[in-house]
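Human: For the file, kindly provide a plain-text protein record giving the amino acid sequence and the backbone structure tokens, at your earliest convenience.
Assistant:
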Amino acid sequence: MNRLFFEDFQQGPLGRFGPRRVTAEEIREFAAEFDPQPMHLDEAAASRSLLKGLAGSGWHLCSIIMRMMFDGFIGRTASLGSPGVNELRWLAPFRPGDDIMLDVEVTEARVSRSRPTTGIVMFRMVASNASGQALCELTSPIIVERRGEAATDRTG
């Protein structure tokens, strides 16, 4: 497997990752430990909620997205981590039986001014279900090592 460096990330679509099927049991297990609100735990309570049925926690979806990112490209990227998430929006609930897909786009890639041996790659990600409904979108930068000789070029 080839390792990905800063120079490998060009502006534009990076890829589509998934599907990742989500079960009702998984939704309830995550919620019980991390987000124990009734709409994530109990079918009857969820049907009376604004979500109108059992739905996964947005934080659960973020965890799924992170795993999909890792399996799709981060796991083979010379990543040095991320300074955070710039924007995160939950657009629609995800449900038991949903097959989650993740579309990833590089919106910007620039050499770091303070650390020219690294670059900052900005990603826009959209998670959707099998019917194409967008569930979540987020933008986040990742700090990535530059490749070989380019990393020693201090002029950027």
